[in-house]
């Protein structure tokens, strides 16, 4: 089961890096979203998937080594919120840039910047 998660992580990471290296801003946003999901999957896999023991252990019991680790799950919840807010901010930023410049091509956006004069 963990091998399937590792392969899924590799596929998500490869697709994210491919999209991030694209020259279109919409693909970059999708790559950023996939990268966040790949990291969440990696954190989830690090928290022992095969355990059936609940994370709440009665006092005096020695089942801590086999219980599920709740920390990666809490980290993933936080990462999901941060990833969603980052993608939402990026989409709004690109929408504003599209309205101001009329394009989503990064090269055309660079040409729209004012040229800086060389310092004397």
From TrEMBL:
InterPro entries in UniProt: CPA3_antiporter_subunitC, NUOK/Mnh_C1-like
Domain of life according to the entry: Bacteria
Transmembrane segments: 6-22, 29-51, 71-94
GO CC annotation: plasma membrane
Pfam families given in the database record: Oxidored_q2
Coarse class of the protein's main subcellular location: membrane
UniProtKB keywords: Cell membrane, Membrane, Transmembrane, Transmembrane helix
Location in or out of the cell: Cell membrane
Membrane topology listed for this record: Multi-pass membrane protein
Family statement drawn from the similarity comment of this UniProt entry: Belongs to the CPA3 antiporters (TC 2.A.63) subunit C family.
Name of the protein in its database record: Cation:proton antiporter
Organism of provenance: Hydrogenophaga borbori
Source organism phylogeny: Bacteria, Pseudomonadati, Pseudomonadota, Betaproteobacteria, Burkholderiales
